Task: structure prediction
Amino acid sequence: MTEASLSPQITVIGGGSIGVAFAVLFARAGNAVRVYEPDAQRQQAVPLEVGTRLADLHSYDLLTEPADAIADRVRVHASLSDAVADADLVQECVPEDVQIKRTLFSSLAELTRAECIIASSTSFIPSSTSAEQTGVEERTLVAHPGNPPYAIPVIELVPNPQTRPEIVQRAEKIYRQAGMSPVRVRQEVEGFVFNRLQGAILREAYALVRDGVASVEDIDTVVRDGLGRRWAFMGPFETVDLNTRGGIAAHAQKMGPFYERMGRERGDTSSWDPELVGRVEAQRRELLDLQDWEDRVAWRDQQLLTRLQFAAHHTSKENS
Ligand SMILES: NC(=O)c1ccc[n+]([C@@H]2O[C@H](COP(=O)([O-])OP(=O)(O)OC[C@H]3O[C@@H](n4cnc5c(N)ncnc54)[C@H](O)[C@@H]3O)[C@@H](O)[C@H]2O)c1
Result:
């Protein structure tokens, strides 16, 4: 990396939904960004979309410099070799098609510098598949964002068994510098963590609609006005840890049999056995001592009320 730690050169490949959003994210963080896009119409659209998204961020007071100055850091390229020549990190944002990704990675083996990180935005495809025998497997990892990444900070970093640890460390540093919240996924599984969790709830939601238990709108209401209220600021483990006096171990003991029966109804025979619950409990207790449980429950309630207050304020402003 030239000026490495200060301002790595970023190249985004594929100027669609995620590519444009990554360009905004990295440019806003001060990086020069090249976007390679083969489609002529998209080449025209990318700068316009970058401008619109930056204008949105500005209107929410989320920029620390003029939008034009940030937009100036983004350059669209019609030539892949020009776009990647001196890149420190390539963010691959091409369609979710293993063959398109494989062909691209084989080209990048020739066109990028040996130390360039290749990060795939893929939602499902592990890089041991997409980068296999392309010549870049040792410097490729998955870096899966939410959509859009400048508004959803988490990014899942998933190395393949050949990815060099130094590549993962450098990628993590670059995403942190760009304001993201990287999570390292320890094994390559299809869909990683984000889409596995999303998939679990979607599978059940489809089954409930199929069986006539609830409408699509009612299921979305249960998540939006129910589960999602807490998930806006904490995850499912912390949620149930705080729901039951005695924490997550007490929750698993009291509620586990109900959840296991519901799973069996859906053909899932896995159980929350005592060893597994014990491991989850031990990790939770490292994060929250049960002595502090009441305080954390009070914190949860304050978080909920803060959001209610914000919503009430904004709704009344919008209606006035
Ligand atoms: N959209 C999401 O919500 C989301 C979220 C996380 C990750 N992802 C992942 O990000 C990747 C991109 O998804 P998207 O929604 O931005 O797709 P998209 O269809 O909006 O954009 C893809 C872009 O890639 C371009 N392209 C096609 N072939 C190319 C090639 N060979 N080289 C370079 N560019 C090429 C297309 O012209 C298009 O502009 C996918 O792997 C997807 O799974 C998407």
Observations:
- Residues 51 and 71 are 6 Å apart (CA to CA).
- The beta strands are 10-13, 33-36, 74-77, 89-92, 117-120, 140-145, 154-159, 181-184.
- The longest helix spans residues 293-319.
